[in-house]
Amino acid sequence: MRQDLARPHRLATGGKENALKIWDLQRPEEPVFRAKNVRNDWLDLRVPVWDRDLQFLPASDKVVTCTAHRQVRLYDPSTPQRRPVLEVTFGESPLTALSLAPGAISVVVGSARGEVAVIDLRQGRVLKCLKGFAGSVRGLQCHPSLPLVASCGLDRFLRVHDLGDKRLRHKVYLKSRPNCLLLSAHQDWEEAPAAPAKVKEEEEADDALWDSMDTVPTLQPEGGRAKRAKKRKSSGP
Predict the structure, then answer these.
(1) Which residues contact 218 (CB under 8 A, 6 or more apart)?
(2) Is the pTM of this model over 0.85?
(3) Helix, strand, or coil (residue 111)
């Protein structure tokens, strides 16, 4: 399930034998779009449905999905056609994750065998493949403005690749097996964020209030005074 960031009231769902559906939370009775399965194969057998990941294209009604049967499909709900308007087959193992590259003209997909590729959504072909993976890819996230893609999977490593020259920029061992990741909008990690001025003013007002209070002396209990007086008498000449 994914949410349309441009229109938060719209979301898309899909899964095993559950074709793509687009829902409007303002009208949740029926999906606004219900995808139709592709035609039977050359043996006239039904093609199984298993959408593993999907994402909305910005400034468009289109949705791109990847399946466990190695297909990358592009749907356009603005047209009368309910079948995918573009379909690309990649690799030899199930596709597990995808993420839109900057510009939304290509998509990065990862497979259960550790194969990662960039696929052009206009021409329907593989542009390049990224290397260095040793296990199933479970999460992909492209930077919204920079040509970078972060990935994680069952090999316990977080990797950041450059989509321009395909080089591996960073590689971090995470000890656990992550299933997803999210890039932060904060770029300079060493620079501490400045405290809001309103919080500082409240702290200064609280300090002034405490400083203006009178100091209350601590009163000792009567039992403690009697014990000390008895002790003085017993220790006297």
Answers:
(1) none
(2) no
(3) strand
